[in-house]
Amino acid sequence: MTIYLPPLDDNKPEHFPPISSALDDPDGLLAIGGDLSPRRLASAYHQGIFPWFGVDEPILWWSPSERAVIHPTRFSPQKSLRKFVRKNGYRVSINHRFDDVIQHCALIRGEDMVWITPEMRSAYKALHRQGSAHSVEVWQGDELVGGLYGVSVGAMFCGESMFSLKPNASKTALWFFCEHFRRHGGLWVDCQMMTEHLASMGAQAISRDAFLTELEALKKVKLDESVYTPQCLGVQDD
């Protein structure tokens, strides 16, 4: 079966096809080509679109029919995780080591299974320098043992990837970030596509239409800039 995808115009970085034209199979595939400039990336996230492609593949853009999201106001870690973090002395920071976090996320599955390509890493590093992409780091002593990164869109945080080098490190990153994000007025964490790991951490699946409706409202909310200031994160143990 031949699939036709509209190629993106290099001269119109904000322009994407209508979300309604996304394919059913493969689910959510919307467009091909273009570039990964900060301007195009920011525009994509503001429209509910994200890039996902492998090494030696063209840039592919997606908006799946079902979206995995976490509501920070409802996120509650299991007692076992709280106890584990206290026992193992993990501490968490935000925007201290973005480049290292994305590098670990890229290689966590091994050298032969990299989907966060060098091109993507460079693009998100540029977006980080512009203040739109952010990292959360988990430390055990002076060792970086886990973390996550993503893109801020108003009161929504669009998570891209996470990694763990020690038990429960990515769960700790998400827990601390959700608490921090909630305290600063953040309302949704977009996890893109549902997995068993995300479901175990409280992610819920919603329709694309419901996601886009919320995105339209949340992207207009301006959070205090201190939410992404490099800092150590505390946790409210409610």
TrEMBL record:
Its EC number is 2.3.2.6. Transmembrane segments: none annotated. It holds the Pfam family Leu_Phe_trans. GO terms for cellular component: cytoplasm. It is found in: Cytoplasm. GO terms for molecular function: leucyl-tRNA--protein transferase activity. Keywords: Acyltransferase, Cytoplasm, Transferase. Gene3D superfamilies: Leucyl/phenylalanyl-tRNA-protein transferase, C-terminal domain (3.40.630.70), Leucyl/phenylalanyl-tRNA-protein transferase, N-terminal domain (3.30.70.3550). Functions in the N-end rule pathway of protein degradation where it conjugates Leu, Phe and, less efficiently, Met from aminoacyl-tRNAs to the N-termini of proteins containing an N-terminal arginine or lysine. This is Leucyl/phenylalanyl-tRNA--protein transferase. The gene is aat.
